[in-house]
Amino acid sequence: MTVSLLARYREMLRIRRFEERCAELYSAERIRGFVHLYIGEEAVAVGVIGELQPDDALVTTYRDHGHALARGIDMPAVMAEMYGCMEGVSHGRGGSMHLFSEPHRFYGGNAIVAGGLPLAVGLALADRMQGRSRVSACFFGEGAMAEGEFHESINLAALWHLPVLFVCENNLYAMGTALARSESETDLALKAAAYEVPAWACDGMDVDAVSDAAQRAVALVRGSGGPAFLEARTYRFRAHSMYDPDRYRDKGEIEHWRERDPLTIAGQRLVASGVASDDDLKDIDTEVIAEVDAAVAFAEMGTHEDVAELTRFVTSEGATA
Amino acid sequence: MSTTTGTRTLSYREAVREAMRDAMRADGRVFLMGEDVGRYGGGFGVSLGLLEEFGEERIRDTPLSESGFVGAGIGAALGGMRPIVEIMTVNFSLLALDQILNSAATLLHMSGGQFNVPVVIRMTTGGGRQLAAQHSHSLEAYYAHIPGLRVLAPATVADAYGMLAPALADPDPVVIFEHGSLYNAKGELAEPPNAVDLDSAAVRRAGSDVTLVTYGGCLDLCLDAANLLESQGVSVEVIDLRTLRPLDDETVMTSVSRTHRAVVVDEGWRSVGLSAEVAARIAEDCFYDLDAPVGRVATIEVPIPYPRHLEQAALPSADRVVSAVRKAVGIDG
Amino acid sequence: MAEFRMPSLGADMTEGTLLEWLVHPGDVVHRGDIVAVVDTAKSAIDVEVFQDGTVMKLLVEPGATVPVGEPLALLADGDSPGSRPPVTEPAPSPEPPPSPEPPPAGRTAAAPHGTSHDAAHIPASPFARRRATELGIDLTQVAGHGGVISVADVERAALARNGEGPASTDAVPAAPEPVVPALPADKPRSSHAAAMREAIAALMARSKREIPHYYLTLDIDLEVPLGWLADRNAGRPVAERVLPAALLLAAVARALHDFPDMNGSFADGAYHPSPNVNLGVAIALRGGGLIAPGIPDADQLDLDTLMARMKDLVARARGGRLRASEMSDSTITVTSLGEQGAESVLGVIYPPQVALVGFGRIVERPVAVDGMLAVRPVVTATLAADHRVSDGHRGGLFLTRIAELLSDPETLMGGSHDARDQS
Fold this sequence. Notes:
The complex is a heterotrimer.
Chain A: H1 5-27, H2 42-49, E1 57-59, H3 65-70, H4 75-82, H5 117-129, E2 136-141, H6 148-159, E3 164-170, E4 173-174, E5 177-178, H7 188-193, E6 199-203, H8 207-224, E7 228-233, H9 251-258, H10 262-272, H11 278-300
Parallel strand pairs in A: 1-2, 2-3, 3-7, 6-7
Antiparallel strand pairs in A: 4-5
Helix pairs in contact in A: 1-2, 1-10, 1-11, 2-8, 4-11, 5-6
Chain B: E1 6-11, H1 12-26, E2 30-34, H2 50-54, E3 59-61, H3 66-78, E4 82-89, H4 90-93, H5 97-104, H6 107-110, E5 120-125, H7 140-144, E6 150-152, H8 157-162, H9 164-169, E7 174-179, E8 186-191, E9 202-205, E10 210-214, H10 219-231, E11 236-240, E12 243-245, H11 249-259, E13 262-269, H12 274-286, E14 295-299, H13 308-314, H14 318-329
Helix pairs in contact in B: 3-5, 10-14, 11-12
Chain C: E1 2-5, E2 15-21, E3 28-29, E4 34-39, E5 44-48, E6 53-58, E7 65-67, E8 71-76, H1 126-135, H2 151-160, H3 191-210, E9 213-221, H4 223-233, H5 244-255, E10 264-267, E11 270-273, E12 279-281, E13 283-284, E14 290-291, E15 294-295, H6 303-319, E16 322-323, H7 324-328, E17 332-336, E18 355-359, E19 363-369, E20 372-386, H8 392-407
Parallel strand pairs in C: 5-16, 12-17, 17-18
Antiparallel strand pairs in C: 1-8, 2-4, 2-7, 3-6, 4-5, 6-8, 9-20, 10-11, 12-15, 13-14, 18-20, 19-20
Helix pairs in contact in C: 1-2, 5-6, 5-8
């Protein structure tokens, strides 16, 4: 699916403004718990998810707002989930880290690093066994590649020839630990390739670069029925989470990466190619902000679930799946 | 429910194998995955012959990646299959405990009811065969602790066969514990087999002086102890829990409120185990009916030793059960 | 050397079973010490020795049944020869004997911390406690095993006390039941109850056979004494409050000063008035059966003490721990129906006594007061008396005297030291 740069720009801006508002709402204690912001990494979700079909499966991490929005999940429903309201995408039960949507084949939102990878492998296995050609894409940070589950999952996907797209969002830091302090081999695509999986890296700050790479990877997975690995080199402009004092990164480094803000890159390219003017971009911003405002208003009016319903969703209600 | 036209004798192992075979014949979504389930015929020989009948796609050998393949089984269940994931033993299951707890048991709730996980996980459990400290665990309590899981412990041939079909039909995850010492045990299976439920404990032996509550591999030694006690003038009722989560309180309390004494027999370690849970419930629900403290016979707090005499001393035995019952009824001895 | 003999513990007792010895050879005993427990047809009774001395030899084994009067033990250096009839002394302050059982070997401690006999601290299983409440068993009176009371111990105690059945919360002594034929004694559990029934039957039959009864009734307005009692009780903790039943007993006890023909015993063809008022109190046992132990010198006791004695007697009667002297020495009996009974009771005199005073249920009734209609709490007092000793005129005066005393309750308060009319 080819999506225009302008459309991608808007998608990234939606994520950006949503995340900025979450930071503000968190500080005002409207949102609680752990919130992991995607600011700076927008190009990866938008670029990759833009290349997936609606019936492909998605598994991601706790840093999942961007993926949810890029996937087309209703912004008000995502915000309501942040507020813990029943109108939220997970019925208010999950919170920021556990966004799920069955109609979007969006399987979370997983707070165990690398915990979602075997699920993606299994989803792909089910497709293979039932003769469907769908892609199961899983997003994870570079820190997950130290977990045994990454290795087990990519090995299984390769061994059983399963249509899994492994997308590594390499933002150089696993919470407070830099990549070089965590991996003996920091060339991540090389590690994946060791499993006989086609693997390559791309510039995660440039949404066009990401979508090009993703397009090729998705086509490969769908065509061959086997796995592929994509490393997107990106950077988060904010701390690991709202609780993180971010003392482990050099301010200069952060500033350097901000110069490669995916919105700036995309915006400049749009203006330079004449597709949109600065005013057009401002208009988009105004619309996006209004959309975020509306989502917040929706969440503020949301319903808190009755405590009497506490033990729902422990077992399935009604018929078998 | 089908009426019984006869019974046949088969081993527990055969009963599990036939249950899987019948399930896979009936539903193409059912498949078996785990270490050595295919070519090897299963670590305990349970799946012998199944590869030949169903092929490599449906009898799927996995690498030694408990977390990976249990998670994949969960993903496959999410994706519409009905996998039977075999973890060779509960001893290795800890590597997959994260997937079982944080994915299988929790996805339904985290997603606000959107994604149920119809996976069945089978594991061999228990000690008594001199397999030493790392291969002799009984960790049913770890799993019975978790909301979102159903935990089964078939102790008889009829249950070994009968419990699999309703477990596969359950829209939510089910963990089945098969005690390693039971595989060779022979028992009767009705022909055609009777349907069984997954909700109730079973009174395996009626009695009036004391209630023994147990499950899985300890059932036989409890029945032996009960026979011995009968000759000593004590009438013992033996309850097989069958399902460890959710526990069938009603059957237990009905019995204890009648006998006024209870002893819980559990192969897990005594502290913080299933026996503690059952004893606590009896104290909560039957306090005013109790004529003696609730007794527990569990594994002694030691990693399971290799030498036979030490291992036997650590594990529950008919002798220890007899002593506990005699103490409960107030006979010296 | 003196002999300690099987005492007579009731008018119709011919034999008793020694349940246990509470002394050993060599023990020094004093008059009033409890030395043995004897089982009569009705209950287990603590038996006291009436002389000082040293126990030399126990002649009878526990479990043996011997006739009344049979020597049970030999005592050295008693100062009262065995032939003198025991003198009735005021009973020592009631204190149940401690449970004697040593724990059998091998029992481990699920057990008890502390050895207090307070019921709350007695280690008993929850089921045992529940059963004890149901059966009306006082746990302080139950001997357990291994330091813990189990339900078997409670049921054993109930059997020994020969009663079981729903607990009654009624603290006031109840009326004697009408004469009922003895129950069949085929079930071991109820054999004790059956034996008691037989004993009561025999006694009642004898009474009706030998004593020419006459009956009188008098309705007594209790407004003044009940009001007085309520005032007196106000501000007192429940444990120290006095019940109307105690007032009634006090009135009867004091009324007897002037009516010696109501207080004594008829034996050997002649009446022997008693210098003491040993007031028998009829107590119904749960599950059937009746016992009438006495309060010695009830006329001498102040009201609070009389109340305490009455409560104690009821508790010990129902727990099966009464003293020999309490069983044999009453000079008159009062029977009261309390809250649950009929409005009047025409009872049967307990031989060898010559009178039985009955009180029905206190009910609100319309009465004429100064020509006006009023509603007052009224009790019907009845007298059953031996016509060989007194007549209706005397009986009527006696009842009237009781009513007079009740109308001036202050006179019932302190222990009376009036000179008694010994005619």
